[in-house]
Amino acid sequence: EAGWGTNTTLLADTEGEIVCLMEMGNLQTVIYKTDAIYMAYAQGALAPFRYELKQAGISGPVSPRAVVRLSNGVHAYLALSGEVMLFDGVSARALGKPQNNHIQKYVLDSADRNLMNKSWGWNDNEHMEAGFYYPLAGSTDPDRGIIVRMGDETLWPVSGPQGSATPAGGKITVSTGITYGQLTGTWGAQNKTFGEYSVSEKSLLVGDTTGKTFIDTGINDDGTAITANIETGLYGGEEQSRWKALDALDFLFRRTLATQTVTAKVGVSNYGEVRVLGSGVNMDISATTANRIGYRTTGRFLSLRLEILATQLVKWVGTIARVALRGKR
């Protein structure tokens, strides 16, 4: 800018390097370092910006692309420490703390910490979620990710298509055609050709290192079944000191249009040891008959695990257990 002259400001309160800048409003910008956060405020003076140290001694972003702006103006970023941090212009805090650190633990257990500078993120403003892709241990490019919901700090792990390296992507609006069943009104009232009708929805688009692009729609992983596991915690009922005899489980699923197998396993733990899973029992949730499985399993604490190779949309509504109480030991 003509007239500014030479203006140099050293942000030397901490030793860390500058990672990136991201706007936070029309007249202010956040400056992220590896160990601190500054704010730059526009001003009508010879020096065009006033700088203010907001927080020092924190873990900064792993890369410039791992900082995203949420719909409420707050920034979320994947930190060098493995945490997902929120910065609101005043201070930064880590999600999942102090109650627990499930987010940080998952990232550090799975990521290649030497290649975290390749990580990138995206935001989903409709659901107030932020996601980040990073290299899995032993990988060279991002191929594993997490989605974190801001409201309750729930974590969902995600992976690239068939383990593909996905160095870039984002949340975009995609228009798709509709089916006859999605058309509303009567046929005579329509004034467009069928090909002109479409539905718009937000989807995650990712690109891999081979030049392919993928989108999170459909019910398979680029033609391959999607592996999914669901496992409950250990349940001891109201009288946890008494033993229970599991007689049967009634599984409630939405019926699928084609054959879809779900494997159910019951876990047992009696005195705090790691639960031991029993053998699996398969059921076809496309069938019109009840999915009821009989058991002869006894223990103080019981759990349930469902294992799925999904080629259909699987919706588990719940499970009803028939349990008889036994004595104490």
Concise overview:
The chain has 329 residues and is mainly beta.
- Number of strand segments: 23
Overall mean pLDDT score?
Answer: 85
- What would you call the structural class? mainly beta
Report low-confidence residues grouped into runs of 5 or more. none
Tally of separate helices: 1
Helix content: under 10%
Strand content: over 45%
Radius of gyration, CA atoms, in whole angstroms? 26 Å
Write the H/E string, N to C. Answer: EEEEEEEEHEEEEEEEEEEEEEEE
Span between termini: 81 Å
The major sheet is characterized as:
5 strands, antiparallel
Label the overall shape.
globular
Question: How do the strands and helices of this protein lay out in sequence?
Answer:
Layout: E1 18-23, E2 28-33, E3 36-42, E4 49-56, E5 67-69, E6 75-78, E7 84-87, E8 92-94, H1 102-110, E9 120-124, E10 129-135, E11 142-149, E12 155-159, E13 168-177, E14 198-207, E15 213-215, E16 226-231, E17 242-253, E18 261-269, E19 276-277, E20 281-284, E21 291-299, E22 301-310, E23 316-328
